[in-house]
Amino acid sequence: MKRIHSIQYLRAIAALSVVALHTGKRAGESLPGPVHDALPLGNAGVDLFFVISGFIMWSISRRSESDPVDFLLRRAVRVAPTYWIATLAWVAFVTLVGYSWITVTLPHLLRSLAFVPHYSPTFPDEVWPVLVPGWTLTFEMFFYAMFAATLLIPDRLRLGALPLAMGCLVLLGFALQPQAAWAKTYTSPLLLEFVGGCLVAALWSRAPGGMARNVCVLAAGVAILCLFGLDVDVRDHLHRTVIYGSASVLIVSGFAGLGDALPKMPLLERLGDASYSIYVFHMLMVLPLAELWQRNDVLPKTGLTAVLFVLVTMFVVCSAGLWLFRTVETPLNRTLSGLLRARHEASKVASR
Questions:
Q1: What is the spatial distance between Cα 247 and Cα 229, in angstroms, rounded to a whole number?
Q2: N or C: which end of the chain has fewer CB within 10 A?
Q3: What totals of helices (H) and strands (E) does the chain contain, helices first?
Q4: pLDDT of 63 higher than 80
Q5: Helix/strand/coil (H, E, C) string of 218-231?
Q6: Mind giving me the DSSP string for 65-115?
């Protein structure tokens, strides 16, 4: 797939918004009022990721072989190993530090590593894995499974089949109001955000539009976030999808349409490349740095020092994310992708 630089920029923005949210929460009331009040907008980074994921998956599938098994294996290789390393590193960290308020059990860990939705023993009301940001990956993996299933039907039907299937699941959730963790996840309105990304990719590939249209679409998405995003109840997935999801669809559409009209931003693009490592590893930096800042008696807890704490933490997270991308994520992906290609070639030879 041809690299779309503007989408890489958005991936970086999505990851950094989540890091800013989690870091800002640790600074709490010490932050200046406007900054503190704007923190909830960081939640929309997850919704951006979901829409971007749908966009990328649809774009990839139109330009590569559409074998469902190969598709799922490629996605597993891309997502799982880095997440497993981050999860095990988090378990080791909380065990060594001795965070008694975090409960880690073997069933909890195994379900987390297997991307199985389940209630957290630490936060009993939440469907969260051991590494809390990994809750989004249970949605990602289910979307990949649903997307892979559509690869079995003719191309002309896929764009209608995926929204229909996801829509039926969401309607089923409204009708039954399930309480089981897996059922709540697999019938959540958040699934529609992936569909929105697919629809944006399909529209963009056929009618990317001009500068004026895409600027207006982007501005509309930003306006929705600014006007309505501060009051979103993130636990209400319907409310979240309506506000953050619709804003994210418009923002992704506008950014994709602007494409090469945007200025080149190499650093932001590199952060976009590393956005997955930044996302899954960031709590390993945020939590200890937050404790150092909170326990520090030298610096006063003023608005300025709180902002400095957030900026320094984000710098550390970005630097570590770039390093982890180069030294962990990329080598793993190359090695495992090479094995998949060898397997694919061997199966082609065997079938002749």
A1: 9
A2: C
A3: 17, 0
A4: no
A5: HHHHHHHHHHHHHH
A6: ---HHHHHHHHHHHHHHHHHHHHHHHHHHHHHHT-TTS---HHHHHHHHTT
What angle, 0 to 180 degrees and rounded to 10, lies between the N-to-C axes of helices 246-258 and 191-206?
A: 30
* DSSP conformational letter for 37: H
> Reduced to 3 states, what is the DSSP secondary structure of residue 126?
coil
259-284: string of b/e by CB count within 10 Å (b at 16+)?
eeeeeeeeebbbbbbbbbbbbbbbbb
Higher pLDDT, 349 or 149: 149
CB 65 within 8 A of CB 151: no
The two tokens of residue 305 are 């020092």
Which residue is associated with the tokens 């590193």?
A: 89
**Token pair for 262:** 């945007």
Please report where in the chains the tokens 């939640």 appear, as a residue. 43
122 has a pLDDT exceeding 90: yes
Q: What is the pLDDT of residue 2?
A: 57
Distance CA 225, CA 220 (A): 9
Mean pLDDT, the chain, as a whole number? 93
For 102, phi then psi, to 5°, come to -105, 120
Contacts of 275 (CB under 8 A, 6+ apart): 11, 12, 14, 15, 321
pTM over 0.85: yes
What average pLDDT score do residues 49-55 get? 97
Does residue 285 carry a pLDDT above 70?
Answer: yes
Q: CA neighbours within 13 Å on the CB side: how many for 206? A: 7
pLDDT tens string 229-248: 999 999 999 999 999 999 99
**Host H or E run for residue 276:** helix 275-281
